Structures are given as C-alpha cells and as structure tokens.
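user: Please supply your own:

assistant:
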Amino acid sequence: MFRKNLIKLLISYRTEVIPAVVENWGALSQEEKGKLSTLNEFFCGMHYMVGLSDQAEEALKIWEELIFEGAKVGSQLLARDYSVGESGTLRLIRTICKAVQSKGCQKSGRSIDFLAFLKDKTNSNEVSVPLAQFVGNRFNIMFHNAAGLYYLDEELKEFLNLYKDENDLLRAVNKDFRVKTYLVSARALGLISKLIIVPLWHILEDKSVSILEMYEKYTHLVSCFNRWSKDPAKFMKGEDIVFYTVPISKDNIYFKLVEPSEERDESTKQILSIIFACFVNVSSRMLSDHLPEGKYHNLSANVVSQAKATQKTNVENKRQFASFDRFFNEKPKMTSYALEGLLMFRQNKTDQFQQSLTEEKRNKFHLLAKKSKKEQIRIYKKRTLEIWCKRKEKIEKKKEDKLKKKAKEMEKKRKFNY
C-alpha cells in the first residue's frame, strides 16, 4: 500500500512540475509530452528478497506444524516463552543473536564470553562470529544468520551447555538448540543464503547488469525453484546453482552446509522442497511484470531507451527515508517541508547543477523558485490537512468497527441466553 501511494505522489508531482522545467513544453506534440511524462514502474529486487524471506518463514511454520502436530517443544516448555508469533526456527535464529552476537542483548547476552570461548577452542585470535544484528538489517538477515548458526552448531552446543543456567535467555536458547528440526531448517535457510540470496544480491548491486536484463535472471530463477521443489538433492550438494556467472563464496560455512549428513539430509530435502514450492508462488506474484507475458518481459525500443539507467533496487530511496528519520530526531522542531527541501537539495545535487548553469539560466531558475514559493507552501499545507483528515477518518472507522463488533458479540450472547 505504501509503495502504491508513493507512486501516486510521484506521478502527481511529475505532472505538476514538468511543464515548468521542460523548455517549450506547450510547443511539444502529444507523443513527445507522453514520452517525457511517462513514469515506468519497475520492481525493487531487494523487496523481492524480503518476500522470499517472509515466504520461507511461512513455509517453516507449515513444516513445524506437520512435524510437531501442535505440541510445544524447546523453549515453549519453559515458563517464559520468547516466541513472538514466529516459527521455532526463526525464534532460535533471533534469540541466538541476542545471546552471542556482539550487538545482542546487553543484559542477558554473553557475546564476549562466546568470542573468548571460540578463540580458546580454535587456538586463534583471528576468529569471528558469523552472525549479524537484526536491527538495521532486513534483506538477508534470516538466511545469513541461519548459515552462521548451522556453522557454529557444535561450538554453540558446548558453550550453551556451560552457560545455560545463567539466565532465562540462555536457558531458552539452549532448549531450542536441542530441537533437531530447527537445526535442519537453519541448514536449509543457510543453503538458500549461500547459493541463491547472496549471488542475487551481487547481481542487483552489479552496475554492469541493467534492469532490462533482470527478466532473464528472474525467469531462470523461477524455473530453478520449480525444479528444486521436486528434487533439491543436487542443490543441497552445491552441484546445481542458479547464477553461474556469479562465483559462490566457498568458505568454511559453505562446506559445512553442503557436507553430507545421514541424520539431516532427508529432512533438509523435505523442508527445501516445501520452501521452493512456496518460492514459485510468491515469485509468480511479485515478479509478474518481469516474467513471460509480463509487461516488462519484451520491452519496446522506447521503454528500453528510457530505462537504461534505472536502478534495480530502491535502496537509495530507503536511505533517504532513513536520513529523513535521523534529521527528524536530531531537529524535532524542523518542519517536514524544510526537511524535504534539504534532502532533495542533497540528493538531486542541486548545488552542482547550479554551478553548471550560465548566469542567465541560474537567475531564471532562482526567479522561478521565488515565484513558486507561495504555491508550494499552499500545496504543503493542503497536503498536511488531507493527511490529518485521512488519519481522523481512520480513527473514527476503527472506533465504529469496534462498536459494531461489540454490538455483534452482545447480540450473540443475548441469543445464547435465550
């Protein structure tokens, strides 16, 4: 919903300003105006990775429900339940980071002790913990930390056995770590990280790969998901990879993940089949425009020329929102209108643009900016009022729905009593 509203705002803004910034706009033909005003809406590749992560989590919930049949296992058996409506596997990945990651829980975590334990066990000072903090990381955090967790399997078991009675967090992590199904699922997620997500991320960040080439990548990726959903055996061994042009990082974590295990191989195959089947469905939905018969699969020459420099992700836009949030916290009395102007000045490199203009053109733009100031403030106030009105409507609707629900429940009770 947020993305759709943002696109509407961009289209509206572009329609309003383009006649003022394009010279001789009135003299252009309708076809030329159409080319200049068209906004091509491509899908952000990073959000696709988030979609895969969410879908993998749903698949894990289904898998665990089939295995445990609703029974409580691991830390759920303790008095304090650390679950927040997630799968047991994700709970283990999240709580293990709180317990041993350097930016984990300051009260109950033991990151320094665990690092010292690893250094002593490996007899090396060059050791590190291959886990990242959840805060500030979104796109690959579940897959990445699952790989690190599985790699540290034996070390974590030994460490938790020593520290499990120190506090509730370590006690809960130790309980979940003893559930074999969670470790199997972590292995499956780790394999996806190493063989799919990380290579895809490299492609999305590779500036030599155009967004126009992504339809081929996405189409091939979905065909691989379809094949692996039937038999992921070769994928598990690292023999069947999706992007042969991107080298796989074959480090110790990779070799631990692909290492055969009589105890875990069959279960890993089963969970991978379920996850890949879910990936086929979510990919068909999220990448519909980039797959065969989608609107960006066979592009016209006009769209190709327009989209050559288009970014494959909107990470830069996310950074702008992060900057907006930081400025808003640092300067709470600064209006959002002033903040928007500051960010646009920096993002659009307005200073460099002004320096490149002749004095005559620079004065022309300055005069245009002065003249448009009152109109911009008027639009800003109007937009602010509309936002508040919508928020008020939302609150009123919520109250109304709550009253209707209460009345419905009262009616049910009345009928039951009679």
Summary: The mean pLDDT is 84. The first helix runs from residue 2 to 21. The chain has 18 helices and no strands. Residues 15 and 37 are 7 Å apart (CA to CA).
